[in-house]
Structure formats: C-alpha cells, structure tokens
Write a structure and sequence with these properties.
single chain, 538 residues, mainly alpha, two-stranded antiparallel sheet, 17 helices, globular, cobalt, transport, LMBD1_LysCbl_Transport
C-alpha cells in the first residue's frame, strides 16, 4: 500500500511537470509573437525562438522535480523509505540525470548550431535575395566557427583532470591513461558540465547587464506610470509647429532664386526628418489616446502601483538573500581554491528558510521556483527592452513590441536562454541547502565546514561523497559544482549583480516618467511602421 501511494505521488509530480511543459510552450508562443515584427516575421526564426526559449524554461522546471524526488525518498526522521532501496533510488537519479543530459545537449545544439545558422541565413537573405543555396553555404561557413568552439569546450571538459595524481614518478602515458579512465567513468558528464558551465558564465554576464537593471527598472516604471497621451500630444503639436516655422524661415532665404548654402540644406534635411518623426508620433499618440487599452490601463492604475511595490519588495528580498549568502561564503567557506563552497548555513537567509518549508507541501516550492524563474524572465526582458542589445559600445538591435526583427528575436531568445541557465545557480545562491538536499534530514549531524577545512588539500570538489550514505544529492548540483573555478566566478558575479542592481535602482529613481509610446517611434522607422501598431491600439 505504501509503495502504491508513493508511486501515485510520484506520478502526480510528473503529471504536474507535464502541465508545466504545456504552460511553458503556450507562454513562449505568446511571448515571441508579441515582440516579433508583423512585416518581417519568418516562420523558421519564430519556431527557433520559441523552441530555444521553451527548452531553457523546461530545464529550469526540472530543478524542483529533481529536488522533490530526492527529498521524497526519506522520512522526516532521516531514514530512507521502504520502497527507496538502492536500485529504485539509482533508477530515479538516472532518469533525472538523463533528462538533464537531453535538455543540456539540446541547449548546446541551439546555441552553437541552430540559432547561429538561422541568424546568418537571414543576414545573407537580406543582402542577397538570389540563390538560396549560396545563402545556406554562407550560413554554414559562419556556423562552423560556433561548432568549433563547442567541440573545444567539450574536449576541454572531457579531459580536464579533477583528480591530479600525486605520484611524482608517474609517466606521461600513465597521466594520459588516467584522463581517459576519468572520461569513461563519468560517461561524458564532465564534458557536458564544462560546456554548460561555460554558457552559464556568459548567462551570468547577461544577468548582470540586463536582469540586475531590469529588477529595479520594472517595478519603478510600474509605480511611476507613463505620461498622459493627451499631454504628450499637445507637446508634440507644439514641436511640429516650431519645426514648420523653422523650415519656413530657412526656405524664405531662397525666394529670390538664390540657392541655399550647404549648411542650410543639411539643416532642412534634418528638420524634414524630424518633422516626419513628429507626425508619426502624432498618429501613434492619436491612436493610443482613443484606444480602449489606454482607458483600461488608466482604470487598473492602482493595481499597477500595487504590483510595482510587490516587485520592488521581491527584488530587495532577492538582493538581501543573495548578499547574506555571499557574505556567508566569504566568512565561512573553504576559500577560493574550492570555489567558495559551503555546506550548511551560518547566516540566516530568508529564502533558504522558506523553500525547505514549502518543499514539504508539493507543489508549493514548484510554484515559488516557477515564479522566481518567470520573475527573472520579465525583469530581464524589461532590462533588454530599455537598453537594447549591445556589443560593447555598439547598439545592435532594439527590442520593441510588434517591431522586432527576426535576427533581434534570435538574439533575444539566446540571451534569455543563457540567463535562464544562470537562474539555476542564482537559486542555489539564494537557497543552497534547498538546491543540494531539499528537505532531507540526517541521522548523524556533521560539522561540514570543519571537515572541509581539515581536508582542504584532499578536495576533488565533490565533498558530498563524504555524506553519500546519509543523503542523496540532486543531479543539478552535479552540473553546478563540477569545477571549482566556475563557482568562484559565480561568487564574484553575485557581488557584481548586487552592485549593478543598486546602481540601476538609483538611476531608475532619478529618471522621470516614461513616454506612453516609449520605443514605439524612432527616427529610423519607415512610414510603413505605422501599420504595425498593436491591435488594441487601433
């Protein structure tokens, strides 16, 4: 009966995971369709963006399932349940591990092959509308560079030694043989972990750039609101009249037949471009002022303020939890050589206390983790939309609702994919005990940090084997902490994340209200872009 009940609970967990998959697919479709250009939309780029974003979200959705399964194998007193023998627990661990293998392999395929190929294909398509075969060849040529980088990362991860032999008289052949033995024993786990960790570091940089700023910009924009469409339209009308008068003054100089100077001609050209932009703004403002969506947004303005206050409280809670977690590592970890790893908590962390409690009532922790991931997605999108996509000091693309080009959409989804990859480590930083062991309890309490410091020279950066008889570690932890130098990079990245968030908070507080058509009208837009107004603004 107990085994049947356990099987029923596990089946329920997997059913909820299936529902989460369906919800993720629907969300990705709506999300991509919302931002893609109506005039330049392409089927392949749309499918690629939806698929890449869905895979990233599914990999993050597997995290609470992994934690639930390892926690469900043990009773509250620390003993294993009757059905959770060695074979059953091993089968469950292998199932989750193979799930990560599959998802992370697909992520590597998307990042290093599929997305680059589609991107370069459409870049060539814009430059050369002729032969499709030549476009494919050119795209494959550029994509080969990404494939080479992926192969190098896999080779480095496969043969980097985690256990260095202490024998001074060992030959080079023995060292090479050891590398191949390690590769065979890990079944490719080390190679995949190294590649994914490399992408996670890039995702960390994207999170520092976009998510940290978006966490401050999104709630404050909700609280401040936007300027009135009627007020902006009045100011815009005054600007149109001023530009028209300036144009008349310059053109009056050539009434007697004298040609305009080169300086005046340049000024006239600039003023005419400015006038076209102002008239496009006039059309957009007029549509927005009369739309039912604007009236609806004005009606729910108090609700937006409540959401803004809630989001800023959540952002401050994340920041405080991240600060306390990093401070705990700085004061009580085994040091830089172990990647600032710490088993057990010495400083109270709100989220680290909350998640193990919610984990005992499935699926409350699943809902909270999903909320955290979606929060990171929305704040990242807010940061990307406010800043655009940059390559150092060069602005590559703008992200605008209903006007995003296919190439920008692919860039957007790749950035979000990398940020979601980093989200797993962010959750570990916020709640390390939860991510490692869930709600498992031990029969014997051990001073983890004392053990680490005494055996620091013997660490292979897998300290959980010391407690292999007492607990089951999540498969996520295997991928997150295979290499100490990546964890050290994440540690310093968390400090940078906190600093950028505080700077973004100050900047967002000092900025005024956003325009009601912020980012909708730019000087480089064509007049045809007016046809791309969202349906609810018409």
């Amino acid at each position: 009966v107990k085994m049947a009940a356990a099987a029923s609970d596990l089946l329920t967990g997997w059913c909820l995971f299936g529902l989460a998959l369906l919800a993720i697919l629907v969300f990705c479709w709506v999300y991509v369709r919302k931002y893609q250009s109506r005039r330049e939309s392409e089927v392949i780029s749309t499918i690629t963006a939806i698929f890449a974003l869905a895979v990233a979200l599914i990999s993050s959705a597997l995290l609470p399932v992994d934690i639930f399964l390892v926690s469900y194998m043990k009773n509250q007193n620390g003993t294993f349940k009757d059905w959770a023998d060695a074979n059953v627990s091993r089968q469950i661990e292998d199932t989750v591990l193979y799930g990560y293998y599959t998802l992370y392999s697909i992520i590597l395929f998307c990042v290093f092959l599929w997305i680059p190929f589609v991107y370069f294909y459409y870049e060539e398509k814009e430059e050369d509308d002729g032969n499709t075969c030549s476009q494919v060849k050119t795209a494959l040529k550029y994509t080969l560079g990404f494939v080479t980088v992926c192969a190098v990362l896999l080779l480095i991860g496969a043969f980097v030694p985690l256990n260095i032999p202490n024998k001074k008289n060992s030959t080079e052949w023995e060292k090479v043989k050891l590398l191949f033995e390690e590769f065979g024993s890990s079944h490719g786990l080390t190679a995949l972990s190294f590649s994914i960790s490399s992408l996670t570091v890039i995702g960390m940089l994207a999170a520092i750039t976009y998510t940290a700023y978006g966490m401050s910009a999104l709630p404050l924009n909700l609280i401040k609101g936007t300027t009135s469409a009627a007020y902006e339209r009045l100011e815009n009308t005054e600007d149109i009249e001023e530009v028209e008068q300036h144009l008349l003054r310059i053109k009056s100089k050539c009434r007697d037949g004298r040609p305009l100077s080169s300086r005046d001609r340049r000024t006239v050209q600039q003023l005419e471009e400015r006038l076209r932009t102002l008239r496009r703004r006039e059309r957009h403002l007029e549509s927005i002022e009369k739309s039912w969506w604007t009236k609806f947004c004005e009606a729910i303005r108090p609700l937006k303020i409540v959401w803004g206050v809630f989001f800023i409280i959540v952002a401050l809670l994340f920041t405080v939890s991240l600060f306390l977690s990093n401070l705990d590592k700085a004061l009580h970890s085994a040091g830089f050589d172990s990647g600032f790893i710490i088993l057990g908590t010495n400083l109270t962390n709100p989220l680290n206390m909350l998640l193990p409690v919610l984990q005992t009532v499935f699926p409350l922790d699943y809902i909270l983790i999903t909320t955290i991931v979606m929060y990171f997605i929305f704040t990242s999108m807010a940061g990307i939309r406010n800043m655009g996509i940059w390559f150092f000091w060069i602005r590559l693309y703008k992200i605008r609702r209903g006007k995003t080009r296919p190439q920008a959409l692919l860039f957007l989804c790749m950035i979000l994919l990398l940020i979601v990859l980093h989200t797993s480590y962010m959750i570990y930083s916020l709640a390390p005990q939860y991510v490692m062991y869930g709600s498992q309890k031990y029969l014997v309490q051990v001073r983890f940090n004392t053990f680490l410091k005494k055996n620091k020279s013997k660490l292979t950066f897998l300290p959980f084997v010391f407690l292999s008889d007492q607990c089951i570690v999540t498969r996520t932890y295997l991928f997150l902490h295979k290499f100490w130098f990546f964890s050290a990079a994440y540690y310093f990245g968390n400090w940078a994340f906190i600093a950028v968030f505080l700077i973004g908070l100050i900047v967002s507080c000092c900025k005024g209200k956003k325009s009601v058509i912020e980012g909708e009208v730019d000087e480089d837009d064509s007049d045809m872009s007016d046809d791309e107004l969202p349906v609810y603004y018409r």
